[in-house]
Amino acid sequence: MKRKLPARVNRSSPKLQKSKGFLHAPSPVPSTHPAAQKKPLLQDDPRFAQAVHNYEAGVKAMQEHKFERARGYFEKVMADAPRELADRAFLHLNTCNQQLERISSSFKTVEEHYDYAISMMNAGNYEGARAHLQKLIRKAPKADYVWYGLALLDCVTHRYEPALKNLAEAIRLNRASRIHARNDSDFQNLGDDPRFTELLYPEAEEQSAKSSAEPSRKSSRKRKSGRSKSRRRKSSKRKRR
Q: Is the pTM of this model over 0.70?
């Protein structure tokens, strides 16, 4: 007897579907498993990107010894960043505070501290200069030159209302500040403000006030003289009668 050969199983790939003359593979079925869904990446979060930017800017400012500016950046990072990045910012923030405290305690006099603040302003570190000048005002509120320096800083940074207020306080404490401000080119942004002119040249305001008051006085004198003449005429007529 002849043995029958086992039937062969056709294991060929599935037939391609024909559609208008083109061959198409069967479309895959989308998976509904939760793990297959794409999770949002932390780098795609705009708040995280901003926190990283602030952290890098803070590190750069700290390397440049601009500790006041670096402290501001690290405080922003701690407010919005994830815990790991916020912990790093906290360590740098403590370093900035220690450096600032050491710098503030190293000055022997108010003048030395003021000169350091002005050097920071000249270097373009306006935030650090403002912090030191405000500390000096709390420490020596009657130092006219500190108020004058803060007015300069406010004018350079386009804070004109505080600049006028601080300059007025400097002039109140020392009238010589008015003479310095007249020749100081750093106040050129306030040149067109009439309040600034009134602060620097109060004599002109007083003169204009006097000149405006003189016509009224003259007119009152004329009225009085006219009344006296009329009274004299009346009295002369009575005497003739």
A: no
